[in-house]
Design brief:
Elements: H1 3-12, H2 16-23, H3 26-37, E1 41-43, H4 44-54, H5 61-79, E2 82-85, E3 90-93, H6 97-112
Antiparallel strand pairs: 1-3, 2-3
Helix pairs in contact: 3-4, 3-6, 4-5
Length: 114
């Protein structure tokens, strides 16, 4: 995360481009859906069953766990949607009222059609 981008996300929440970038990947969407339905803090072990249950490609558990740790959660943190501590494997959702309805509608649309 560039300093300017990170400072903007901390003060104002994620920019619109970051929202669309986050929503462009199914696993990132699933993590956001999880947090809209659950606690504000979750471990990879909490997130993994939810992502696996909705992964239409039937991904490998270990591969998805690794991807959550190294790609998905760091990217969502970089975009400003959550804080991620890779040492503990925990993420804290940073609710942004500007995008909540969009995330909820996306989840409804995606899960309704599957």
């Amino acid at each position: 995360m560039t300093p300017a981008r990170g400072e903007h996300a901390q003060r104002h929440g994620p920019p619109l481009d970051d929202f669309f970038e986050a929503m462009a990947d199914s696993h990132r969407r699933y993590v956001l859906y999880y947090f809209r339905e659950s606690d504000d803090v979750a471990s990879i072990d909490d997130l993994l069953p939810f992502v696996l249950a909705h992964d239409s490609e039937g991904g490998d558990r270990d591969l998805i766990r690794t991807r959550l740790h190294h790609v998905t959660l760091p990217k969502l943190a970089d975009c400003g949607f959550l804080e991620y501590d890779p040492r503990s494997g925990t993420a804290r959702y940073r609710d942004d009222h500007r995008f909540g309805d969009c995330i909820d509608h996306s989840a409804w649309t995606e899960f309704r059609s599957t």
